[in-house]
Amino acid sequence: MGRPSTLEERRKTLLPVLTEVFSELGYRRTTIAELAERCGVQENILYRMWSDKKAMFLAAIDFLFWRRMAKWQQALESDSSGDRVARLIDLTANDLGEQGLYRIIFSALGETDDADFKEALKQLYLRYHQRIRAEVAAYRAERTSNNSPGEADTAWALIAMVAFLNIAIELDLLSPTGRKRLFQTISKFLLDDGSD
Fold it and tell me: Pick the residue with more confidence: 94 or 16?
């Protein structure tokens, strides 16, 4: 069996750092020199792994999705009590604004005149929607009746709520406790039509 690619291993090591820098500075203010300095490498090393800054940024967007999915999976595997959706809601409520990483998404929204940025964000949200919709469907399959919105609409509404709450973080509209309470209340309403 062949040796794993050291380039791929290095890419995996550097992606969290790139993601943090893009989160802090946004796409336009981030320079390759800054990325290289924070990663502790020469610029040419970054160019061996990615063709340009745009490729690095798009990789950071993809990294966000997979990191979130790993956190969700870990939360679901760590506790067998209760229902899956409740655990995901609690995890999301507690992680709102995690390290300001939502700023990468906001930064990318300003670049959607570029088809690659637009497609990356579209795929990010479609993948989130698919995963959330599956969890909502499984949750509702265990319940007898419910007047809640459809599964697809519920998934989109939950995604929209997280987007709003990330804006609320940036603008200091709600306290951390207020954001958590609002997300849990609205999530419960969407899933169960407010019933217990």
Answer: 16
